[in-house]
Amino acid sequence: MHVFRYFRYNRKQDFISSKPVGLSFLGLAVCAGSSAQNSSENAKHPNVVVILTDDVGYGDVSIYGSQTIQTPNIERLANSGIRFTNAHASSATSTPSRYSLLTGQYAFRRKDTHVARGDAFSIIRPGQKTLPALMQRAGYITAAVGKWHLGLGDENGQDWNGLLKPGPRELGFDYSYIMAATGDRTPCVYLENQRIVNLDPADPVEVSYTTPFPGEPLGKDYPELLTKQRPSFGHDQAIVNGISRIGYMRGGKSALWVDEDIASTITQKAIEFIEQNKNHPFFLYFATNDIHVPRYPHQEFVGKSGMGPRGDAILQLDWSVGQILDVLEKNDLLENTLIVFTSDNGPVVNDGYDDQAVELLGNHKPGDVLRGGKYSAFDAGTRVPFVVCWQVGKVKQGVESPALVSLVDMYATFAALLQQPMEEDAAPDSFNQLNAWLGKDKKGRPYAVKQSVTTLTIIEKKWKYIVPAQGDAYWPLENMELGTNPQAQLYNLETDLSEQTNLATRYPKEVKRLQSLMDQIKRSPRTR
Ligand code: NG6
Ligand code: CA
Predict the structure, then answer these.
(1) Which CA distances in Å does 522 have to 151, 379, 429, 458, 489?
(2) Which residues, chain by chain, have CB under 5 Å from ion ligand 2?
(3) Quick count: other Cβ atoms within 10 Å of Cβ 523?
(4) Which of 149, 230, 351, 451 for mutating ligand 1's site (highest number of atoms within 8 Å of CB)?
(5) Buried b or exposed e, range 440-476, using 16+ CB within 10 angstroms
(6) What is the pLDDT of residue 41?
(7) Quick check: 336 and 40 in contact, CB under 8 A?
(8) What confidence score (pLDDT) does residue 171 get?
């Protein structure tokens, strides 16, 4: 059992004091203090921690001015770094967003990158260029901890009771401690280095997304077994820990996760990885389960937000971030660790469980002034919190940047930072945004392409263009405007950030220009 220390208000905001000296790297002034980590060698190789949260909206953290929920640890990070107001996940759902982040390629270029089932095969193929492999090449020890949702194994067979391969290791992660898919999908077990943790060989795990296992009660038939949370829609198949899920599973009793302990379990694994590798440059991809459904945080957080489990899960997420900062600080690693904090896609309030998120939302606006949310082509779907913090690299502190950046840029940005070549076939959609991350460039990319569940959108300077598409415009269960429209949509984000007035008929030339830019990007990556 890990001890939660949740109330961390009143911390000093600038957690570093550093003395600049004359070293330089990539034109940056490099700060040196007394500790070993500040040698010029290490300054060239900052530790890297990417904290990728799940379904956390632009308005869900207090760093952009939301007063309805306090996230002091995320604030602590933002006050020591730069926070972006125009940062975008490449997709409004998890799998494609993560695919882009790790490969530097827009997921729309591949047909098989939609929200993955829990028994999906590895979507990123061994041999594909990946961010963790880039980091390995630069001398880093790499780890993936938390939500995976990119598939495991291949069509040659998926051995849930043995080694699941390919998986994180084959894609460049030396160490992994992951949930195969999402909190609401089977199998509900952790995998350490691609083997189920705590598995009793006498009680093997079976997983199916097509056929229920005889004798296994399902949520839809046995609501009385749903002692912890009930679905509001969907999520009525396998029952694990008193909560029904998507997908079927049988066996693995000793290995099943307990939802209220997921945050502390994966945070602890992240902490252990940091401590074990503190003398060597490391890259930690820490993908939280919070605040995805089912939201079932630890007792420590229950009732603390006044917004029910969704708000409480935000507080738990903030706690996890604080734990990561604390372990870095304790080990004298904070100065020379480059930390990115962001989210895979925008927020949704009712995502299929009866957790009172709608009823208890009050004045909280998960997407702030932005329209739409998760799944949507409107901006709340993909405009996400994005913070970069790196003391030694002189990332500006406590400032806001309007630069247009995308999660697809991580590959090229880290390649630039670590002076690694970009091979011909590597990360075709990734642009080097190092200067934006450091606060030196206020413009960022020329454009950003985003993907909703039905269409593509592009932001270019003040314009946001939504490609015409067929499909649902609204999902009543999620109460979500998807932004799908068979007519072109054009918004001026400078004057209409909430995307209220479609200007497409007034500015047909802009529509035509943006559609042809979109076509060009689709045809040829690396379009500038
Ligand atoms: C949807 C699920 C939703 C969530 C989402 C993936 C239903 C009714 N809805 O299909 O709950 O799991 O997939 O979310 O099943 S993501 O953040 O991982 O992309
Ligand atoms: Ca997500």
Answers:
(1) 25, 21, 10, 12, 19
(2) 54-55, 94, 344-345
(3) 8
(4) 351
(5) eeeebbebbbbbbbbbbbbbbeebbbbbebeeeeebe
(6) 52
(7) no
(8) 98
**Cα of 93 to ligand 2 centre, how many Å?**
5
Atom of ligand 1 nearest to the CA of 115: 19
**192: enclosing H helix or E strand:** strand 190-192
Q: What's the pLDDT score for residue 369?
A: 97
Residue 146 bridge partners (DSSP):
178, 287
For residue 6, pLDDT over 60 is answered with no
Report CA(417)–ligand 2 centroid distance (Å): 28
> pTM value?
0.93
pLDDT at 16 > cutoff 90: no
Distance CA 342, CA 323 (A): 16
Residue range 111-122, pLDDT digits in tens: 999 999 999 999
Say what the alpha-carbon torsion angle 509, 107, 142, 189 is, to the nearest 10 degrees: 140
291 alpha carbon – ligand 2 mean position (Å):
8
Q: Which of 100, 184, 355, 374 for mutating ligand 1's site (highest number of atoms within 8 Å of CB)?
A: 184
pLDDT of residue 136: 98
Q: What does the DSSP 8-state code read for residue 527?
A: -
Q: 469 pLDDT exceeds 60? A: yes
How far, in Å, are 188, 222, 457, 495 from residue 56 at the CA level?
22, 31, 20, 25
pLDDT exceeds cutoff 50 at 10: no
C-alpha closest to that of 82 among 366, 437, 522: 437
Residues having CB within 6 Å of any atom of ligand 1: 54-55, 93-94, 115, 149, 182, 184, 233-235, 246, 292-293, 345, 351-352
**Whose CA is closest to atom 3 on ligand 1?**
351
Share above pLDDT 90 across residues of the chain, in percent, rounded to a whole number: 88
pLDDT (mean) for 117-133: 97
| Overall size of the chain counted in residues | 528
Calpha distance 158→519 (Å, rounded) = 38
**Contact in structure between 431 and 425 (CB atoms under 8 Å):** no
The Cα 305–Cα 244 span in angstroms is 25
Ligand 2 center–CA 54 separation, angstroms: 4
